[in-house]
Structure formats: structure tokens, C-alpha cells
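Hi Y.,

Following your request, here is the sequence exactly as I used it, all 199 residues.
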Amino acid sequence: MKYTMNNIELYNELLKQGYIDYNNDNYIWIPEMEFLSPEKMIYRKNIYSELLKVNDLNIFAINGGGDFFAWGKDEIVLFVEHETGNCSQFALNLNDAIFRRIIEFTSGRYVDMCSNDQKSLMDEEDAEYYISENDAITMLNKYVETFGEYFSKDKINCITKIAERGFYNDYNAFITDEILNKIVNDIVKIDKAIHNIAK
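Below is the corresponding structure, written out as C-alpha cells. Let me know if you'd prefer a different format.
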């Protein structure tokens, strides 16, 4: 079962398949989790090593603000604010971290979503900043297709059910923050403790 891979095994497998390489046709976008190549992992670690205690961490992804995701010897994935050194547990492993980002995408937390009708009425310039319900469902199906062999059945079922149900009425997203928190607690099972790794 591939979903039992440790972090480096999973990272290497995703890299090999081209899922996290921008220059590959198989590349798949994960909102606010931009995976780094092995060379860029080292580069980012060197950048932050003077400010933060990152010697035992593998920095594997960044978000749009420059904050980053990393794992240590214990496999736990941390979200680190690069300016303050504050970090919190994001997931128990890389597999769960990817799943969590997909679920957070469905809440509209990191992207602007709109109904199909709303998008059809937008001019081209505005429309490119929004993801319609149909476009989002296509993305969710792509996530299942791409990560299905790496995800457990409960993760696949969760994403599939969200896509099948579609948007909530008058809510331009698939799930509410309340449901998001429940899924994160029940499936990702994170500990929200925050600590600081600034030197």
C-alpha cells in the first residue's frame, strides 16, 4: 500500500511521476503548497539556516508568502512562518499534508470560487482569477486520479463525496469551516501546538 510510504519515499515517487515538477506534463497544482525540487530544498534550507533552526528539517514546499512546509526525523509535517520562526504541526506525514491542502481548497480558503453562472457572466480578465464549481470538481477528480494510489480509502471517499455533492447553497465553496475543521481533526488528526525555531 503506497499510502504507508514514509515522507522521502512518497516525495521521491511523486517527483518520479512528474506530479510535483512544473516542467512535466503530469504536474498537478496543489493550492498554496508549491513543491520544491531536491536542489531547491537544499537552497531554501541554506537561506533559512542563519535565521532558523532548520538543520534537522527537510524543507519541501512553500506557499505564496514564502512560508514553508518541512518534515523532520519524526515525519511530522510542520508549517513554518519564515519571518518569525513560529511553526505548527500541519500533518502527521506528507501524505496527510497533501490531503489536508486539497480539503482546505474545497473550503475556498486559498482560492476564489464562484458558481458556473457567475463565471459565465464575468469578462475574461476577471474570470481568470476565479475557479467555477465545474472547474473545481474537475480538479477534485484529478486529485483522486493522481493521488488515489497514495491515499487511503477514507481520504478518497471524502474527496469524492465532496465533489459529488457540489457547492453549498449561497456558499461559494464545497464545505464550511466547521466541516473543514472536523475533517482535519478526524482524518488528519493534528496537534495544533505552536513553537518557535528562530535562533
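The helical segments are 7-17, 38-48, 94-106, 116-121, 124-127, 133-147, 153-165, 177-188.

Thanks again,
Q.
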